[in-house]
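Consider this one:
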Amino acid sequence: MTNLSVSVPELQVMDDGWRDSFRKACNLIAPVWPLDQWIAVNPFWGLRHSTAARADQLLQERGGINMLMPPEYYREAWDGGRIREEDLRASIEEFGGEQCLADYLDWPGRPSNTSAPGQGSILGTFSGGPANSAGNGEENLAEVVCDQVSKTCGAFFDQRQGRWSATRGEYDTGLFGFWLESVREDRSLDFRTGLAGARAFFNAVPDTMDEAIEESIKAIRVSGQELEALFHSLLLRVNGWASWCRGEDWRAGLEGASSDRCAELLAIMLVWESLGAGFASPAQKAQWQKQRARARRAGDRNDRNRLWVWQRAFELGYQRTLWQALGFGHQTEPVSVPDNETLEVQAVFCIDVRSEVMRRHLEEVCPGVQTLGFAGFFGMPIAHQQHGPFAPVRRLPGLLSAPYRLIDTKGSLREDFAENRALDQKEIARESVRKAKYSSLSTFTMVETTGLAWAWKLLKDSLKRGQHSNTEHCIEGRLVHNHGGDPLSDAEKVTLAENMLRGMSLTGSFAPLLVFVGHGSHTDNNPNQAGLDCGACGGQSGGVNARLAARLINEPEIRAGLAARGIRIPDYTWAVAAEHCTATDKVTIADRHLIPDSHVHKLADLQAGFEEAGVRVRKERATPLKLNGLGDDQLKEAMETRTRDWSEVRPEWGLANNAAIIFAKRTRTRGRNLSGRVFLHDYDPALDADGSLLEGLLAAPMIVANWINLQYFASVTVPEVYGSGNKLLHSVVGGNVGVVEGNGSHLRIGLPLQSVHDGTYWRHEPVRLTVLIDAPAQRIESVIRCQPDVAALVQNQWVCLCRMSENGAERYNKGQWKSIA
């Protein structure tokens, strides 16, 4: 099994005193990824060492953020039967409360104080200059400052969009230096802040960041435990850009480099705060102290506790339906599974919840197919170097670094050179058009003509039929070390293949056809495209990884090496790659020309099975997409049309409504309708005597599932902070940095509203991830002791850990296992 245990990068630029508080505050912010590599991230990751309820309290105190849904949401779930009496009683018992249902049932209808203003900024006691002049009394100096800092970040991190933006100069002064220079050069600063002397104040700020921080702390007069709270509060005010900066630091850490972007942003906010402290009157300072004291009270504790009881009851209601679907607690008919004689195909899918629906229907139409679940990068930790002037694209989980690089090749250096040169010229031409279009010297004729050309392209793309072309399938690749570029040895390739096969508990009983099914989603005009692709592949489609996995398995030298390590793949087994388009549920087989004649008929049967399964999957997906009543062909055409319709804001629902992950053999879940809500990862406890395989699974795939789960959770419960707003109003900033909403400057992170809400109802139920494992209790507990991040998620209630037992299931709570089904 690949060692998927991860060492999470943390900021380590400072060591004691205020420096330690600085580091801790930065580490409380979760990272985000660029749009073209976008992956779901648990926005509460930095708070994982606190209980979920305590994290909720801290976010209220410091940012006015309420992690849960309003009371009315839970009352509606109760009235609709989504929460039952046994769920509420069980939740009250978990929290150690008294069994007084009447109090809980009456509470959602009463006025409550479940939120509180975040720790106030002293800048909030000032009115912003221009906003005040325009008669907008709502905008204060704190909002003006956040806007200024956000625009500075937009200019600094711009990758290619800005044509008239300020440059960083001949040398990189860092974000702090870039910002300090910009405010010193801003001749309108006094007017915009409403403070005469603001520009002079910044001219007196020390040029070095450390000195500026120390002077600012002295001016603000905050120390001790309040210092970290203040730092965290400052970052939460520009949470989108703080998350981007944290992502820059994170990705640098994965590559062994250092980056202090988040610390620089915090320093900027701190200097602004010190400006407020320097200009504030005694009355304003007194007002600020009152705001901070009120924030520390963070609302009514009893109301918060009740809300958490309702949230837990909501989650227990889902678990009740999951146990029923799995057949726990009552007799069910045994499910037919193929034996060695009838087994024709083994199809390995990504653990993505959308794969559950396809796997279930494929097994129904092809009884001789065994499906397996494994992380969709198939254990291939690569960066993909395509032809042309493009940077390598990471195709692995964001938690991991890429030790290997897959370089596209057409078979010879001459052909590669020709291809690269042609693509270079093409990109130069495109860049020339961009410059001509956006240059201040452009004529109106150029702009208008280009606009007409784009209008024709939109019309042509909307009218074209069929699937998007995928040229990746026409190209081979060389696998080399990312650093140094040396080709991998046969032994290293064998290790890759071995880790993959052991990781999916597939070490024997191979079928004649072994299919690696990656997945992707093909849509037009969609900045959030990567969020619909494979998260395990770094927000890319999984076809490239699937092709590489199949190629390794088919190499005779690799098979010989595997046999020497105890994994014998029969000569009659052939590996094939495929890609599942999750927007249309069409599965495309790659490299058909390499298929031996002996396997052609088996592949034809499998393709027919994929097509029939796709028909059934589309019918199941029709209701949430509001496409009911269409025939099979009409439904297929409607879903294909959604992928190329540039105005479509919901081409598919992605991973909405994900709720659980199961680590078990497929025989434990085969034939069970899990409603596309469950990540399924194969795990055979009999092949993992020392528990190392389970440790790797909980330390990586479970954490990835937790990130996805809480990304969707937060995009529903706190959409104004952890969601990216209205997709119709998005503007892309900085090339691939992210999106802003409308003409705003705040970077929006998370999922768009249209990804979790259909215009009438929420399409995602915000429940924390249920983790169900088929393994002995002692083995699971051993992993918790060995993996700090796993322990933090389990013990602090960020996930709900359960195990399969002889009589159903047991839930882990405070070090004890309790029978629940």
